[in-house]
Each structure stands twice: as C-alpha cells, then as structure tokens.
Amino acid sequence: MQLNKPFATVTPTLDGDVLAVLASADVTFTISQVQRILGTASGEGIRKVLNRLSAQGVVLHDEVGRTHTYRLNTEHLAAQPIMALSRLNSTFLHRLEQHLTEWEGSLRYAAVFGSAATGRMRLDSDIDVFLVRATDSEDDGWDQRVTELARLVTAWTGNDGRIIEYTEDELRAAVAAGEPLLDDVSKQGLTVAGTRAWFTAQLRPTRRS
To answer: Is the dihedral of CA 191, 168, 180, 1 positive or negative?
Structure first.
C-alpha cells in the first residue's frame, strides 16, 4: 500500500482521491479547491465524482450563488469507515508505537524514515524503520523481536519492512564516520519510540566537527 494514498487500498479511481480531500477537514470545498489539492485531476472528472457521491448521500452539496460547495456528510453510515481509511498513515504509526512499548528498556530510539515518512511511497516501496538498541540491554530475544517487527510491518501494510538497527556504540561510530543515513533519519524521521531530542543529541559531535 501507499500510506500517502490510503484510499488506493480499496479503489484506484478518482473517487478515492476526492474522498481523501473531503475527509481531511470538516469544511466545504469547491471543485477548483479540490483540483488544486489533487494537482493532476480534471475539474470535469472531479465534478462527476462529487455528483456521484452526492447522489449516494456521502457528500453534501450546496450552492451559493454560482458557486457549488461540497463536504463530507459526517452523519452518513459510511462516514466512519471513510474517516478511518483517511487516517491509515497515523493509524500505522500509532500501532507501531504501541508495539514498540513492549520492548521495554532494550530499545533506546526508533523512527520511520524514507518514503513512508516523506509521503513519496510507491506501491512497491519498503517501509524503513530505524532502531537504536540500548548498550546495557540484556534482551536475549532482540533478534526475534526485530524479525517479528519486520513481519508485522508487512502484515499491516503489504510492504516489505526494512529494519536498520544500531547499538548505541555503533551509533556513536556511525556519527563519527559521518554516516549519511543518520541525516536522513534526523531530517525526515517520524519518532515512534524514545525521544527525538535524545537522537538529535547523539548527532551533535558530527555537526560540531
């Protein structure tokens, strides 16, 4: 799946893109506003989709002068499933955070980075997860946890989970060596365990140099 295009999991049509826009905020939209947000769809195509969704009652249509406005009907029976689909990205991150809380003291920091964090996923993109293992960890099941994490990411999304792991000592060595991946995590990463402040502090020796 593409976390940045959640409705594509159930429909590859323009309907999903339009619903994603309407579900993004509890406000009214004009056809031109929807078109600007989507960027690639035609106004006529958007109009047909909105008329079809209005006929189903999923979208509320109003006319003010010559301006036609549309909004998601939040009282519709389908509204909650639509909203849930629109939140797949945040649902994935929350589920990941909840799972990683079970790792207790063995995990110092974790973040999702790469295309899953920047909103540029393709259908075949990996989901990259960066982990830092605590130096004093005595978790004999660490390797099994990492394997299970990769399996869960794939089960939740259909995408391969790519786990990049460091111990704290390895992280310090990578910082000293100027490992470019760490800059990617710092600039784009979405923290799902530990604190961003801790991770940023580990990078300061490289930046001072």
So the answer is: negative
pLDDT reading at 79 higher than 90: yes
Return the CATH fold of 6-86.
Answer: Arc Repressor Mutant, subunit A (1.10.10)
Which of the two residues, 99 and 206, has the higher pLDDT score?
99
Residues 88-208, CATH architecture: 2-Layer Sandwich (3.30)
Q: What gap in Å lies between CA 149 and CA 144, rounded to an integer?
A: 9
Contact 81, 7 (CB under 8 A): no
Which residue in 170, 171, 158, 165 sits closest to 202, CA to CA? 171
Distance CA 177, CA 209 (A): 11
pLDDT at site 205: 59
pLDDT above 70 covers a percentage of the chain that reads 98
**Quick check: 33 and 26 in contact, CB under 8 A?**
no
> Which pLDDT belongs to residue 136?
79
| List of residues 6+ apart from 133 with CB closer than 8 A | 106, 107, 108, 139, 142, 165, 166, 167, 168
